[in-house]
Description:
It is built from 19 helices and 12 strands. The chain has helices spanning 30-39, 67-73, 84-97, 108-119, 133-141, 169-178, 202-214, 226-236, 245-255, 279-285, 288-293, 303-316, 319-322, 324-338, 356-359, 369-381, 420-435, 453-456, 465-477, and strands at 101-105, 125-128, 145-148, 186-189, 219-222, 258-262, 272-276, 351-355, 386-388, 408-412, 443-447, 458-461. Residues 58, 60, 107-109, 132, 134-135, 189, 193, 222, 224-225, 262, 264, 272 line the site of ligand F0G.
Amino acid sequence: MANIKFYAGEQVPLEMHKVRIIQRLNLPDVDARLKAITEAGNNTFLLGTEHVFLDMLTDSGVNAMSDRQQAAMMLADDAYAGSQTFTRLSNKVEDIFGTPYFLPAHQGRACENIVARTYVKEGQYVPLNYHFTTTKAHITEMGGKVVELLCKEGLEVESDEPFKGNMDIDALSKFLDEHKGEVSFVRMEAGTNLIGGQPFSLENLEAVRDLCRAHGLMLVLDASLLSDNLYFIKTREESCKYLSIREITRRIADATDILYFSARKLGSARGGGICTREEGPFREMRPLVPLFEGFLTYGGMSVREMEALTVGLEETMDEEMINQGPIYIEYMVDKLKEAGVPVITPGGGLGCHVDAMKFCDHIPQEQYPAGALAAAFYLASGCRGMERGTMSEQRNPDGTEELSNMELLRLALPRRVFTLSQVKYAVDRLVWLYENRHLIGGLRFVEEPEVLRFFYGRLEPISDWQEALVAKFKEDFGDSL
Ligand code: F0G
């Protein structure tokens, strides 16, 4: 988004693209919304999109593609083995990351499966800036333990710290000294998802790399949310101001031993992959690709997805193509902040994150305040967000809840998908809900899967708070949807 001033002085994020394909949306009325969320077991993952107005569940696989990506998909070379499409992708990966070895996978968690199966040994630790749900599940599945060594600002809801995704370097150094021989690898996550899409700085990543080298450990980077992190390094890290996005990308890749990503996010396509500079790790992980994913020249991706990804990766190097997400998010965060709604600051990537712990401070964590807020926000707006709190954790082996550090309602803004008026609508309804927050009540599980329960677990409201909320909506909005 170019630096274009409005004569009237208003700060407006102005898009440097135009929309050429549209999808008709439907906004169900509030009674239909109550029926839909009840049938979905109060879990927004279980809503059908026919009941959703603005889908802010995730950015995963739903970013808008560019015309060039769509065009490239038509040129795909369909072949089980040796497809030219794969060669083009693998060459692009090497061009951008400087990594000659590439293992394709069907999505990000498949890469995590391969990395964890190859390198995590029973009882070992994986220090990381912060965990992601599927990453932790794969590490613990192999008997490993995640150790979060995020900088202290990372978990502060309101902060001026530009790099809340940084690793606490002193804590990492101490941990590595005290646990020699007990660490599988160190993992950093770009655009740290569960703390609100918060970035790390290049300086911090390079400090982590230095410690890894000193201890003979591999540094693994989850680059799924790299595009937002690149934008933040470029705009927030003084020493990187004059580096191009491409140069920053290369510095990041050079600091890592293994870099993997979900192409549902990075590259605005589908699929994923693991990149390495050295042949050793490539050979160690390679056998798992044909076993779990598919042959080495597609790894579960369709050729069309691979072509779209090749173009998408190149477009990630263009600041005008990656800045729309973070700038829209900043706009949304600012508007909510002005209205007093508690949100994570500074705005990160991926989406706007509402602090449910504060929004619903009358709901105990065992009754899932962020899950309840997600259900309430759907009732109030027809917009679908995602719970990122205790529901997204797994119970402890003794059955007690693993209370999450943060209770967030994530309102993802898939890249280039929504208009500003739609963002304003979501803000408006959230402000209304905040003023009526005392009406929101808790939830309890009626069906609770053991692993990754947030995906398909079902819950019910504790009390009839949803009917009361709907009644208040009708009182305030009359016959408006
Ligand atoms: N790592 C990070 C940082 C992610 O955000 C995700 C997915 C994955 C790995 C797994 O990738 O979905 O392609 O298997 N995040 C999605 C989200 C699910 O909605 O935030 P995947």
